[in-house]
């Protein structure tokens, strides 16, 4: 059925955390040329989805499907490179480059006690930092690394990230309106957005292994926009503790709320636990894009959003400090050794 721009495959969502399906939200109403009526419907759809499950499939998102497919192909090609060529791209201090299998462990997970590393390898790409930029050399402000033998990876990643950044900005406008704020309220906090594109490869796992491609966790940023291949393996946990499959749907991205947006919204939007376990007997590839605020952005709950008697659930925090604390704990290469 279709209701306020939200389509459900089977059952209807009701209250926060109680869901059996992830809704499909039509984003065409957020386009510049959309009518006010269509825009209001899209905003209402986002609001309902993110207040209930914190997840949504996004259709009519505006990112060219041929570019999405090229990015998938480049992801597969990157991980098919010889090990020595991938190793030459070893992740640098700016969190850009290749991360081998089993080198990230989500110890900051608030969902489960995670002690075993994720069964995945990835190439991490972040926002470009122009040479001579005032903030060059600061934490997370440095050069990307791409395979020299596959120049198409760099070209495609830059084009893909440009389109995804535009999509992230449109979504941020819709989220501001969903919270009763001016459409451009988030814009100053994203003047120099912190962007991540992670090209992930999950090998086949055996049923009996007590391991995860990605252990149960919540994301710690603003929003995640995921393109997964046709293998499946992503699951989302509802209030009852059930793990709900989030299979791929052609022509859509999976969007989810991160912890910082949940805090920014004073708990109105929910950051929902999710995990990946690849039991398909095939390799799985995905390309999550993380749209996050500037490292220098001060994140605090807007007073004009609070209702009478309501107080902020979070203390103001600089996004860069918040982010670095989590990266330093979760990635082997950033952990200090004696």
TrEMBL record:
SUPFAM superfamilies: Clavaminate synthase-like. Keywords: Iron, Metal-binding, Oxidoreductase. GO terms for molecular function: metal ion binding; oxidoreductase activity. It comes from the Bacteria. Residues 193-293 form the Fe2OG dioxygenase domain. InterPro entries: DIOX_N, IPNS-like_FE2OG_OXY, IPNS-like_sf, Oxoglu/Fe-dep_dioxygenase_dom. Belongs to the iron/ascorbate-dependent oxidoreductase family. This is Isopenicillin N synthase family oxygenase. It comes from Pseudooceanicola spongiae.
């Amino acid at each position: 059925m279709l209701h306020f721009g939200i389509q459900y495959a089977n059952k209807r969502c009701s209250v926060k955390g109680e869901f059996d399906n992830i809704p499909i939200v039509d984003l065409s109403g957020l386009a510049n040329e959309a009518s006010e009526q269509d825009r209001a419907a899209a905003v209402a759809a986002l609001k309902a989805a993110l207040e209930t499950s914190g997840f949504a499939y996004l259709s009519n998102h505006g990112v060219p499907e041929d570019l999405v497919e090229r990015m998938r192909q480049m992801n597969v090609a990157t991980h098919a490179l010889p090990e020595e060529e991938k190793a030459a791209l070893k992740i640098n201090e700016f969190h850009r480059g290749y991360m081998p299998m089993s080198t990230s462990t989500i110890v900051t997970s608030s969902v489960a006690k995670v002690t075993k590393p994720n069964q995945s390898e990835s190439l991490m790409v972040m926002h470009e930092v122009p040479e001579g930029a005032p903030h060059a050399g600061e934490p997370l402000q440095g050069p990307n690394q791409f395979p020299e033998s596959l120049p198409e990876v760099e070209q495609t990643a830059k084009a893909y990230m440009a389109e995804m950044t535009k999509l992230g900005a449109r979504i941020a406008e819709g989220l501001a309106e969903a919270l009763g704020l001016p459409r451009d309220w988030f814009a100053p906090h994203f003047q120099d957005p912190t962007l991540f594109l992670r090209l992930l490869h999950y090998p086949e796992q055996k049923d009996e292994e007590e391991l995860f491609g990605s252990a149960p966790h919540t994301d710690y940023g603003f929003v995640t926009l995921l393109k997964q291949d046709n293998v499946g393996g992503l699951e989302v946990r509802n209030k009852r503790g059930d793990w709900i499959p989030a299979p791929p749907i052609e022509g859509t991205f999976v969007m989810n709320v991160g912890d910082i947006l949940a805090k920014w919204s004073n708990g109105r939007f929910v950051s929902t636990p999710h995990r990946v376990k690849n039991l398909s007997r095939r390799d799985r590839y995905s390309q999550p894009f993380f749209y996050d605020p500037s490292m220098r952005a001060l994140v605090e709950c807007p007073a004009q959003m609070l209702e009478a008697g309501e107080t902020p659930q979070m203390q103001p925090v600089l996004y860069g400090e918040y982010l670095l604390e989590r990266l330093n704990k979760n990635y082997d290469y950033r952990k200090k050794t004696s």
